[in-house]
Amino acid sequence: MFGHLEPGFWRIFRRELRQIKKRPRLAFMLLPYPLLLFALLCSIFYEGLPTALPVAIVDQDDSNVSRQISRMVDETPELEIVARLSNLTEAKRAISKGQVYGVVLIPNHTERDLLSGQRPEIVTFYNNQVLTIGGIVSRAANAAVGTFSVGVSIQVRKSKGQIAYEAMAAKNTIPLQRSPLFNPALDYTQFLLSAVMPAVLQIFICASAVMAFARDRHSKGHMSRLVRLGQTPIKSMLGKLAPYALAYLTTLLLADSILFVFFEIPFKGSLLLHVGYTVLFVFSCLSLGTFLALLAKDTLGSLGLVGILTAPAFAFAGISFPRMMMNDFSFVWGGAIPLTPYLQLRTDQVVRGAETWVSLPTLGWLLLLLCLFCGMSLLLLTKQAKTKDVSDPSSLERNL
Q: Mean of the pLDDT values across residues 138-166?
């Protein structure tokens, strides 16, 4: 189809396409498998926000007030009462078995204390080992009980002769207005799905680069033949990585199309900048994988380094835990992984709609990682190509 190609970028590019075609498992890993994984993640986060989480009620008061509190908790979209238990021993057992995520305890004399102006204590127990769900249960239960408490307090004050406005003012002496600036609906599709997919894809990208260079490293001609076919180390490396870059850029493009079109997640920033840092992210991951492939002595060792560096990368990226609160080791680890600046740029542009100049320092950080990994890879590739050329008599004769 292409005929004979002179040594250079396109010679290596076509050669790598043939190598991928010969290996169906590798071809499946480039596009179909990441998209299937993304479809699975979409099915998990489809609802956007967890609803109807199972909780239990321990109603020790058994009064009109306690039954009304139970109804308000059950009517909260996030919660659903699936059991009414008689004591806390049963409640603890239900939480331990995973039957419910939380328990609302309404103690004895709640109605009496509330109507007499006292403050009965309604307690919410929840499983905080599942941190996100535990937080939702606690927040929703407290909101339901708090709303009921405010309503009863106002009614008591009105019964004592205060007008409605005075009763409201007395209950809320200093009103608090909360205005979430970003992701106000706590939509986990926008918050987690758009971050988890690049985190998983980073592992695929680095592993693909490792396997691509491992083939040449263990071939008959070693790295010297690769560099001769590409003319220069940089042309050889770019030609070899280009098919993988195109495949993973297509994957990210399709994933973003699903997020912005199907899930209707609003895009608030610069589309041009979004495309730019996405390209930098893919090439940074490929360069990191290349560096690890040339650094380790065997393929398994390279893949092991990829797993060690990239598998926990999401925890160090600052999405679930703020980077400014991390220790020095975690901060440096996260800063050395391309995922961290990419997710920061993505959050700035997609969610916050930040001005372009605000994202320039982070863009420079991602570009610096690309130059660092690419530069170290080129140094190792050049060194190994020269070493193999000198150690292989047949290669020396061809060069002469």
A: 70
